[in-house]
Amino acid sequence: MIHYYAQTDGALHATSGQTGTAIPPGTLWIDLMDPEPEEAAFIGQALGVEIPGREAIVEIEETSRLYQHGGALYLTATLVSGIRQQRPISSDVMFVVAADHLVTVRYANLPFFEYLEDKFLREPESHGSSEQIFISLCGSVVDHIADMLELMQRDLDEMSEAVFSDDRSAASARKPGRTDLQTVVKRLGRHNSALSKLRESLMSMGRVLDYSNQWASLWVSDPGLDRSRSIERDIRSLVDYVAKMFDEIAFLLSATLGLIDIEQNSIIKVFSIAAVLFLPPTLVGTVYGMNFRIMPELDWAFGYPVAVGLMVVSAILPYAWFKWKGWL
Predict the structure, then answer these.
(1) What is its main location (predicted)?
(2) How far apart are CA 228 and CA 234, in angstroms?
(3) What pairing do the DSSP bridges indicate for beta strands 2-8 and 89-97?
């Protein structure tokens, strides 16, 4: 699918296109969403650039992801989507940047692409060239990642409060259980996976901007270069923030697993004490349950109450001992 973004009445507006139809005049950005080979070939021929296929875009060598050819920059970034739906997916996006146009090739719906359309209407003066659109797109990617990190940090704060809450500790002391802690462990695992993909996106965008700045003389003005370097600084700060969040997740995971062990030990402790309390009465009952013919107590009138009393006393004495030692 081809989307053209052309300047009309001083602002960028999106229109859909088809293979073989003329590119609208004033087009600055062409977005190829899951393009067919014919669509990629048509745009490449119309603009005089090469549009790589999907196999070339997903290559992992840096020389295949970042290069300059024919006066245009070919930049591939790995971006993540689906964080809000808790289904993070990484996908590769190629930017073909030239002085008079920008072409993006992607194979997934990415939210920050849709956000740009509103931005075009709000700030038309900041999107009057391919350079400005590319930098604005990079900024939108970084802003979106920052929003996702803020969302994850709030969730981590809530989990931390729930795990270390005094109310929860009191409830666990009355009725030990692991269900809520197991849920926390699963949520931490999902956050760790999403955070890894967000860090990958940040580092990928950092490499894209660093490489594009090296060739800034081809297509970037001084204000655009300043904005690009500002985004790079934001990326570095977010990478540090991600490292802090990884440490927090590791601490929460370790603490949660420790609490699960404590609650498991509490359960085992209850069973162990119960076994000790019932062991002496069981011994007494076993002795008087033997079927020997000559047992003096069998003919004793007080034999039954004495045996029951022994069982009760033999259960009370260990209980009193545990209480005195502070084990209960």
Answers:
(1) membrane
(2) 10
(3) unpaired
Question: Would you say the CATH fold of 268-325 matches that of 2-264?
Answer: no
CATH of 2-264, one of 3.30.460.20, 3.40.630.30, 3.40.50.2300, 3.40.50.1260: 3.30.460.20
Query: Could you tell me the two tokens for 130?
Result: 């391919």
| Residue type (1 letter), 271 | F
Q: Which two tokens stand for residue 299?
A: 């003919």
Q: Which amino acid is at 318?
A: P
The residues pairing with 74 across neighbouring beta strands, listed in sequence order, are 67, 96
Residue 220 is predicted with a pLDDT of 64
Q: What gap in Å lies between CA 198 and CA 271, rounded to an integer?
A: 46
Q: Which residue has the tokens 């119960």?
A: 274
- Chain-centroid distance, C-alpha 246: 10
What DSSP element (H or E) covers 83? none
How would you classify the pairing of strands 102-106 and 27-33?
A: parallel
Cα 236 → chain centroid: 19
Local structure of 16: helix, strand or coil: strand
- Residue spans of alpha helices (H) in 123-221: 130-163, 166-174, 179-214, 216-219
Query: How is the chain split into domains, by residue range?
Result: 2-264, 268-325
Q: Tell me the C-alpha distance between 27 and 213, whole Å.
A: 24
The residue with tokens 């996106």 is 201
Q: 3-state DSSP call for residue 229?
A: helix
Which CATH class, in words, describes the domain spanning 268-325?
mainly alpha
pLDDT along the chain (328 residues), means of 10: 80 75 84 88 86 84 85 88 80 87 88 74 73 87 90 90 70 49 87 91 91 73 79 93 93 88 79 79 79 73 80 83 74
pLDDT value of residue 222 = 67
